[in-house]
Amino acid sequence: MSTEPRSTEPNRADLGKDPARVSGMFDQVAGGYDRTNTVLSLGNDKLWRVATTRAVAPRRGQRILDLAAGTGASSVSLARSGAEVVAADFSQGMIAEGRRRHGGIPNLTFEQADATALPFDDDAFDVVTISFGLRNVVEPKKALAEMFRVTKPGGRLVVCEFSHPTSKAFAGLYGFYNNRVLPLAAKAVSTNAEAYDYLNESIRDWPDQPTLARWIRQAGWTDVAWRNLTFGIVALHRAVKPAADPA
Description:
Rossmann fold; SAM-dependent_MTases_sf; UbiE/COQ5_MeTrFase_CS; 9 helices; disordered N terminus; alpha/beta
């Protein structure tokens, strides 16, 4: 393994979503990531996390995979139920920060993982969830297929991701905030403000709610549904892996 120090120059991903650049960008912002998200989302990130946890409905005895878990903020919410939670992320820096903060929680483990080639057995989890990470995957359809593979028959998928406001008036206000206000706020609170330029680009490029639902169905999931959070800034998609046919 190379012993050369990671560059301290700001690392900015782009819509090519090169895995090395994406993971490098998140490595650099890991320490202040949760604080920055709370500031830039005007506190809504906590409400979105609560909605996601309720949709997952974790229970003791379940095994849950939390993909793109970052520093584990969402994973901790799930682990409080007593479920066994695996917090997985592509970024070594995020995983290291998560272990530093939450490594003492006995039913929570951290693993580095590529969403398009998950290092888990078939049918390993009762629920797979991913929050604000599918958009950053270079092959999101492949990632949805991998999530399907590692979910038990009858298990569930919960995807929380930025989406598109349904109201034109609100969409205009949201666009103004993202294009004019957020870059200034990012410069004030983030160690890598350029990373949040990518955030804007990736949100604009991401498909709308019905299109993501179609991708999920194409991966094999059934009972696909979604609900909008904060006027459609975020959408919470849910689906089920068909139960195995009786022998």
